[in-house]
Amino acid sequence: MTDDPIPETLVRRTAWPASVSRSVGTPLQTSVVYASADPDELDAQYGGKVEGYTYAREGHPNADVLARKIDALEGAPSAGGGGIIVGSGMAAVSATVLGLVRKGDHVVAGAQLYGRSLKLLTHDLPRFGASATLADPTDAASFAAAIRPETKLILIEIVSNPTLRVADAPGIIAAARARGVKVAVDNTFTTPRGFRPFDEGADIVIHSVTKMLAGHADVTLGYVAARDPADRAAIREFAVTTGMTGSPFDCWQAERGLYSFHLRYDRSEENARALADHLASLPGIRRVVYPTHPSHPDHNRALALLGRRGGHMLSFELEGGRAAANALTRAMPGIAFAPTLGDIGTTLSHPASSSHRNVPEADRLAQGITEGFFRISVGVEDIGLLRRDFSRGVAAAHAVSR
Ligand SMILES: *Cc1c(COP(=O)(O)O)cnc(C)c1O
């Protein structure tokens, strides 16, 4: 076939065109493998003598570009290489816990952590011969009392989901330090704009980048950074071995989302504060939960820990049961009724039918999660639009509950 018009070299890889000018947008690097000049060069790279990528599961440029930006937001230590990007927030939690904990070790964790984190600690950790005790994060003494000689790690969130209780982070970190236990903070809810765990003495910071950092409900990614380079290396090794890598496209997309993180966060927070006041004024609302609102059970701690940064999450309880809850979501179709948070637009979730459906009813009610309880992830919309939507929804619910 000498007259075949397809050149024999077609599948040979082409060098990227040279240019003295550089791209302004971050390039999307989807290559899984990287070619070296010779075995000496590859050897030097694997030996850590020179910097270079080898295989995407081990690391790729789009993950590193994203990680360095989150490092800057969190004030993460650069020793050992900075934060690590993985494929989801749960990958970050799993890599941290399973990368650091050995057989016989013990973890103390907040009793109201993200549901899958609780599942990992109570269901999976015992399969590896380790165990976890859950404690009340608003009470540092209960954490101190739960620490044992074999306790290796403490895992907390600053603001709990969905009841928005505020952890006594300084008290828990002090108790952990006194006993030589490392503290990991899942900072997804609070974000580095509300609280910076490393500044307060935490050892490890975890994010579901999926939420507010990426901010557009179109990527799933996680981040973890550690103060101690040995912890960082253990977490990274576990993540690479178990294949937790995030895709270049997701990292590229998340980086673009991150450009506007501070603008989205500030606007969402301003909206959340105003919407909390608006909801509190409506008939048919039993209570509004917002950390910096004077009615919040941890109001003083919220002010001390978060300053005026109450965040973008807000919860409320309607009078009435499931029928009132159904009427509310149906009367406000413009607000996505979806079990996520941190999107640029407002989303609404109903824990009793979603995130907390498997929590025994008595425990749910003890936390105040009734059929009328909703959580709002407030977005950047015009506040007038949000007030109108929620007025309509709450009025429809009130009409059913009377
Ligand atoms: C969503 C979330 C996670 C899990 O993140 P994914 O990206 O969905 O895996 C972990 N912790 C908190 C606090 C979350 O809100």
Overview of this protein structure:
With 402 residues, the protein is of the alpha/beta class. The chain folds into two domains: 39-258, Aspartate Aminotransferase, domain 2 (3-Layer(aba) Sandwich); 261-401, Alpha-Beta Complex (Aspartate Aminotransferase, domain 1). Helix content is 38%, strand content 14%. It has helices at 39-46, 61-74, 89-100, 115-124, 140-146, 169-178, 191-194, 229-241, 248-259, 261-280, 299-306, 322-331, 361-366, 383-401; strands at 84-86, 106-110, 131-135, 151-157, 182-186, 204-208, 222-226, 285-289, 313-318, 336-337, 347-349, 373-377. The strands form two sheets. Strands 1-7-6-5-4-2-3 form a seven-stranded mixed beta sheet, sandwiched between helices. A five-stranded mixed beta sheet has the order 8-9-12-11-10. α6 links the parallel β4 (151-157) and β5 (182-186). The model has no long low-confidence stretch (mean pLDDT 95). The protein binds pyridoxal-5'-phosphate.
Structural class: alpha/beta
Distance from first to last alpha carbon: 83 Å
What is the average per-residue confidence, as pLDDT, rounded to a whole number? 95
Supply the number of structural domains: 2
Whole-angstrom Rg: 24 Å
Helix content: 25-40%
| Coarse morphology | globular
**Strand and helix order:** HHEHEHEHEHEHEEHHHEHEHEEHEH
Oligomer: single chain
User: Poorly predicted ranges (pLDDT <50, ≥5 residues)?
Assistant: none
CATH architecture of the largest domain: 3-Layer(aba) Sandwich
The side-by-side strand order for the widest beta sheet comes to: 1-7-6-5-4-2-3
CATH superfamily of the largest domain: Type I PLP-dependent aspartate aminotransferase-like (Major domain)
CATH third-tier fold name of the largest domain: Aspartate Aminotransferase, domain 2
Bound compounds:
pyridoxal-5'-phosphate
**How many helical stretches?**
14
Q: Total number of β-strand segments?
A: 12
> What does the largest sheet look like?
7 strands, mixed
